[in-house]
Amino acid sequence: MPQLILIRHGQSQWNLENRFTGWWDVDVTEKGIAEARDAGKLMKEKNIVPTLCFTSLQTRAIKTLNLALEEMGQLWLSVEKDYRLNERHYGGLTGLNKQETRDKHGDEQVHIWRRSFDVPPPPMEDDSAYQMSDDPRYAGIEVPKSESLKNTIERVLPYWESRIAPALKSRETVLISAHGNSLRALVKHLSNISDDDITGLEIPTGQPIIYDLDDDLNALNRYYLSEK
To answer: In terms of Cα–Cα distance, which of 181, 177, 155 is closest to 84?
Structure first.
């Protein structure tokens, strides 16, 4: 049966600093490196053998994938990178400390920006230090000014339908290294989770999620890979 492995990147520097990250490119921490390596060791131990990989254009996801594959002895695998697997764009919140943002705007407003399904954060200003329109990896791509989870899903799912689903139907075992919100988009789709419930789903860093799928890519099982 087709098998899909999802992994959220290991802890990033801005995860550690409790800052809104989104599309801004930050590296993984030493803990994040260890999480990625541990994920690779665990997949090898459990005989999880991917044959094709997908990731975003962001360093933390790419490095997590490479570190995991290195531990599995599979750095040679084909990897497709695409911005549609990027994290949700946090707009004008990018770079801000989450607690300081709560102190300034109030818990309720920040909760709406973080956890509502279809309300995006304030847009990023054109002169923001975190503006990415000139980043060469996004040449020819319209970088959003802000995204809700709904917006993120609207870019992830067409990529799923055009690139990832056909690979699974061709009997590839697919490993995706991505981000909390781009993975929420896939989990929502595969597990038929409601708009209200998906916003509360937490996806831990560096812990592989396994989907066993039928031939039509309906989910038969979803579980976290563990050492037990």
So the answer is: 155
